[in-house]
Amino acid sequence: MLNRISTYFYRRPRLTLALFLAPPLIWFLVVYIGSLISLLINSFFYLDGFTGQVIREFTLKTYAKLFIPTNLQIFLRTTVMALSVTLASIVIAFPLAYYMARFASARMKTWLYLAVTLPLWTSYVVRVYSWKLILAQEGIVSWFARLVHLDGLLNWYLSNETLGGPSLSVSPTGIFLVFLYIWLPYMIIPIQTALERVPKSLIEAAGDLGATPAQTFRTVLLPLAFPGVIAGSIFTFSLTLGDFIVPQLFGTSSFYIGKAVLTYQGTSGNIPLAAAFTMGPIIIMISYLLLARKLGAFDAL
Amino acid sequence: MRSKPSAESSNERASLPLTLSAIGALLFLHIPLWLIFLYSFTTDESAYTFPPPALTLKWIPQAIQNTAMQDTLFLTLRVAVLATVAALILGTLAAAAVYRFDFFGKEAISFMLILPLALPGIVTGIAMRSAISLLHIPFTFWTIVIGHATFCVVVVYNNVIARFRRSSNSMIEASMDLGANSFQTFWHVVLPNIGTALMAGAILAFSLSFDEVIVTTFTAGNQQTLPIWIFSQMLKPRNRPITNVTAMLVVLITALPIMFAQRIVAQTSDGEGGSK
Question: How many domains does chain A have?
Fold first, then answer.
């Protein structure tokens, strides 16, 4: 019996293919692509301000709301945050990645690789939690500042209106630090991969031809590592754009894209506006990916 | 060729600033994790005082016996197991289809499977939320499972297809030539061959689901998974010692299996590891 079934399907590869492919394909088309389409549909509905009901009629009203100053500011604030996190993680990731690629022995490299990826395997929400402990007013940062008698400086910094706040754990600087911590490994790995491919002879040749280390870095190393930097920045940028946990936990009252989406769909039940808002990061990310592909970032992945 | 790079020669030592910044970056990545462990033992109940006033072991049994914690833990485990099973089936089927057959749109399949992980979590989350609202689907345990299974499929798929590509087709042909039917071939040849890949994929999928908070926020309604519970405790800390211990437990539950999975993958050198 089994033999006959087996032969039956063996002779009909298209049918077998259909049986294999149908469950995952249907699942994804219904659950995922379907959801994305419903997101798009929802963004063309609008919320009736008086009744609090979503009106299911085609309209561009909801999209128009994105362009009021408060919302534009949210986009700007989030993009600036994503850019600063990306730049800072490049600066911190580069020396470590360079060390791993160039100076670490094979054994050391395996060990370092493990050390860099271990935080990635640790729970995201717990890693965020650890920064609640660190940045708290009574936490380790303040303790350290007092220890080296720099608490005056810390307080002065916190009194800054755009960067500071009541404490580090409620300030844009706090958000920035947590993002930097959480996404840093995503920047280290691609840069290391790119640097790994730079032949050592190239760097030696630059030195032999009279370039100073700074010149070698700028004219040889950096251009060759650039695809890796771009690949890493895709992660840091995209992840920062879409995150709502960190701004929610460490933010002052000012909104970021993710927090805005969460608030609109939750407390105010305004799913159309939340949906329209999400188109922002989608469009920003797609343009970023297209730009990255042009710059050759995907060769380094 | 790379076995003995001239790293030993004296001019190839890393400069001091470089070494220091590399060490600094490593410490930046790791100190927060140490603190999670340290704070599980602090006697401080109402704040995050550093250094801890004193250390104690008393929170660990209290946390384990806490019923709210237990309920969320079991819910999270149930979700993770079901999502993993679904991901195993769907991911393996998709990998087999893409590997064995040629068909129109083959390239699009892997792209589609990776989308839920590649797009920011909030996009997947709000997309599902809007589908739930559009179709008036009630929030249940199953909406969480379906959401999780969707982004878990790709890790199983990646592992299994990498294994398929490495194993030669001639084994399957030999089995068929020797008279085994497709089912026997699958059971005796294919399954043992992809076994560790399935295992690694399953562990990664499990950890991914166990850990997820962003998509879950949008698909969960009133149900609380463990990460969501921790998140809510951070917003309004009610029980800090219990949260501290729970955080430590979550690290152990997610990090250890993944290291194990990485080992399996490394030993069989598929290279398709998983991260978010």
Answer: 2
- The interface residues of chain A toward chain B in range 267-286, judged by CB-CB distance below 8 A, are 271, 274-275, 278, 281-282, 285
pLDDT tens sequence across B66-119: 888 888 999 999 999 999 999 999 999 999 998 888 888 887 887 788 888 777
State the Cα–Cα distance between residues A67 and A71, nearest whole angstrom: 6
Q: Does B135 touch chain A (CB under 8 A)?
A: yes
pTM of the model: 0.84
Residue B60's contacts (CB-CB under 8 Å, 6 or more residues apart) are: B40, B245
In tens, the pLDDT along B218-267 reads: 888 888 899 998 888 888 888 888 888 988 988 888 777 777 777 777 76
Note whether B35 contacts A134, CB cutoff 8 Å.
yes
Is residue A139 located within the same domain as residue A276? yes
What is the residue range of A161's domain? 70-300
Model confidence over A202-249: pLDDT tens digits?
888 888 898 888 888 888 888 888 888 988 888 898 889 888 899 988
Using CB atoms, which residue from A93, A136, A238 is nearest to B120?
A238
Start-end of H helices in A44-105: 61-65, 69-98
Q: Are residues A238 and A184 in the same domain?
A: yes
> Touching check for A95 and chain B: CB below 8 Å?
yes
Contacting A residues, span 205-244, partner chain B, CB-CB under 8 Å: 238-239, 241-244
Tokens of B158: 């990646």
CB contact under 8 A, A278 and B122: yes
Q: Which stretches of A99-212 are DSSP H helices?
A: 106-121, 124-135, 140-147, 151-158, 172-196, 200-208
Domains of chain B: 16-56 (no CATH), 66-268 (1.10.3720.10)
Please say whether the beta carbons of B270 and B162 come within 8 A. Answer: yes
